[in-house]
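User: I'm writing a short report section on ligand binding and want a predicted complex to refer to. Could you take this sequence and flavin-adenine dinucleotide and write out the structure as tokens? A short remark afterwards would be nice.
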Amino acid sequence: MEQVSSAYIKRSSEPFDAIVVGSGITGGWAAKELCERGLRTLMVERGRPVEHRTDYVTEGVDAWNMPNRGRMDAKVVEEQFHVQSKCYAFSDYTKQFFNNDRDMPYSTPENRPFNWIRGNQVGGKSLTWARQSHRWGPLDFESNAKDGHGVDWPIRYDDLAPWYSHVERHAGISGSRENMDILPDSKFLEAFEFNNVEKAFKKKFDPAFAPARMIMGRCAHLSKPTDAHLAQGRLPCQARNACERGCSFGAYFSTQSSTLPAALKTGRLRIATNAIVHSAIYDPKTNRATGVRVIDNETMETR
Ligand SMILES: Cc1cc2nc3c(=O)[nH]c(=O)nc-3n(C[C@H](O)[C@H](O)[C@H](O)COP(=O)(O)OP(=O)(O)OC[C@H]3O[C@@H](n4cnc5c(N)ncnc54)[C@H](O)[C@@H]3O)c2cc1C
Ligand code: SF4
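Assistant: Sure. The structure tokens for the complex follow:
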């Protein structure tokens, strides 16, 4: 936590080698990789800071200690969360990780309906995602070339496979080895055990639908953390199913639990929050982006 607060900056003349816009799953990974390769990195996030553990304000709160037992006032939903409430993970427990649709409205061309689920804060949607983590298989990269639709992928599964492994080892993906062509195995932690109902279902399902078979979902939860995960401050999952409120065990992969601590450990990361990137500053002489223009979310000041 110490490290996080000292990484926050508001105004600085420090030069950076790299600027990462956003702090969701993508931004967190970019910051970690850049910092670990020796680049002084600035992460610019339009939303508020969310501290691991302390800002998971509804974690462990029982329904009887929530107004309306965790259900939200229908009027508030209609006025402020008419889009975000369409997401199954949205509730009174998690509303702090979803945008307020009244304060941050958006429109689409010709006002076509589009449910844009957004979480503008440090961690982005890494706090609320469902953590299912499956590799694409070789066929996924080849099918459009084979059937002639769309644009062929410029890479194939084998190009990406080492990067899947790189990410999986750090994030921690639990699952079972199945040797299936269409769903390649990841670098797995132990799979979660089926419960009794699932075991009974599988017993009937597998023979009835062979060669299809029922397998455990592959998810970014630490069933059995490695030493590297423990060193990140992460602990085994308690399988208590309240993840989108935030997890103090750091048992599921999020920016807060995983990539941010790794980036901070290098001492090369700075984080500017409440800072909306307006545009990139482009230098035509060098053909490079040299910085970003930012609008302060709280003061509307430009810097
Ligand atoms: C409920 C739910 C369940 C999901 N389940 C799964 C799943 O099981 N498996 C799976 O693979 N995927 C899942 N997804 C999808 C997955 O969560 C997203 O694809 C992923 O989190 C996107 O990460 P991101 O970093 O690209 O974007 P985000 O997490 O949206 O992060 C973007 C960040 O950038 C910031 N930002 C945006 N614009 C600016 C700007 N101009 N200046 C500064 N900052 C800016 C935002 O505030 C935000 O913090 C799920 C999504 C949801 C909502
Ligand atoms: S311990 Fe496991 S089930 Fe519980 S909130 Fe954390 S990740 Fe989710």
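A remark for your report: The radius of gyration is 22 Å. The first strand starts at residue 18 and ends at 21.
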